[in-house]
Amino acid sequence: MTLRVAVIGATGRIGSEAVKAVEAAPDLELVATLDSRSKLETLVESGAQVAVELTHPDAVMRNIDFCVHNGIHVVTGTTGWDDIRLAELDHWLAGAPEIGVLIAPNFSIGAVLAMQFAQQAAKYFETVEVVELHHNNKADAPSGTATRTAQLIAAARDAAGLPRQSDPTTHGLEGARGADVDGVPVHSVRLRGLLAHQEVLLGDTGETLTIRHDSLHHSCFMPGILLGVRKVVAQPGLTLGLEHFLDL
């Protein structure tokens, strides 16, 4: 069966690549491309079954609200999610039990694997920190990937009975030790020339382990986006993380 797909945010860096990827996929049909000036009603008029949403935290809730209430599945990589937003999305989906929404902090298969590796390693090391590096036009800090990575690490440490990390002896400028995400320090670098990069550094007595992933071109996100499009139609409700669509 050919899936009818729309791309919201089609003129952005990742959105324009998504347009090309959907057009090239033999089992998908690109039926609409939307930018910030487009009307969401175009999604209904085009008969889209799945919307790939790649916009901005300020727009994502309105876009997904429209899709869910019009029977359109959603695959989004837009960041800015918190408990309040997730609860609101859950409420919308409760009224549309057949609709699936995938929120993917990262569509890169390598990045998803790196997150999983970090989660596995977290319980074996006393200390762990996350450093994420992105281009200087990125809207949020920390990145959605870094936040999700830290949450997975913290959950693994909690499950293993390890205490939350603390750093009571360090003194200096406020913020120098990064943001605290569930007890995991997360440091954000914003630098022209970068795309998307992340390191997880784990340390214990006499050794360290570094898990690093580098996205060098926006095309690296396309296999994950296409996987999400194909899988979300058979996965009602909210799916948080592309790893749930992989055989891990």
TrEMBL record:
Reaction catalysis annotation: (S)-2,3,4,5-tetrahydrodipicolinate + NAD(+) + H2O = (2S,4S)-4-hydroxy-2,3,4,5-tetrahydrodipicolinate + NADH + H(+); (S)-2,3,4,5-tetrahydrodipicolinate + NADP(+) + H2O = (2S,4S)-4-hydroxy-2,3,4,5-tetrahydrodipicolinate + NADPH + H(+)
Organism domain of life: Bacteria
Binding site for NADP(+): R37
BP term (GO), one: diaminopimelate biosynthetic process
Annotated InterPro entries: DapB_C (IPR022663), DapB_N (IPR000846), DapB_N_CS (IPR022664), DHDPR_bac (IPR023940), NAD(P)-bd_dom_sf (IPR036291)
EC numbers for this chain: 1.17.1.8
UniProt GO molecular function: 4-hydroxy-tetrahydrodipicolinate reductase; NAD binding; NADP binding; oxidoreductase activity, acting on CH or CH2 groups, NAD or NADP as acceptor
Binding-site list for (S)-2,3,4,5-tetrahydrodipicolinate: H135, G144, T145
Domain Dihydrodipicolinate reductase C-terminal: 110-246
Cellular localization per UniProt: Cytoplasm
Residues given in the record as NAD(+) binding sites: G9, A10, T11, G12, R13, I14, G77, T78, T79, A104, P105, N106, F107
Residue ranges of every copy of the Dihydrodipicolinate reductase N-terminal domain listed in the record: 4-107
Pathway: Amino-acid biosynthesis; L-lysine biosynthesis via DAP pathway; (S)-tetrahydrodipicolinate from L-aspartate: step 4/4
Annotated transmembrane regions: none
NCBIfam families named among the record's database cross-references: dapB (TIGR00036)
Functional description taken from the UniProt entry: Catalyzes the conversion of 4-hydroxy-tetrahydrodipicolinate (HTPA) to tetrahydrodipicolinate.
Subunit-level organization: Homotetramer.
Protein name (record): 4-hydroxy-tetrahydrodipicolinate reductase
Phylogenetic placement of the source organism: Bacteria, Bacillati, Actinomycetota, Actinomycetes, Kitasatosporales
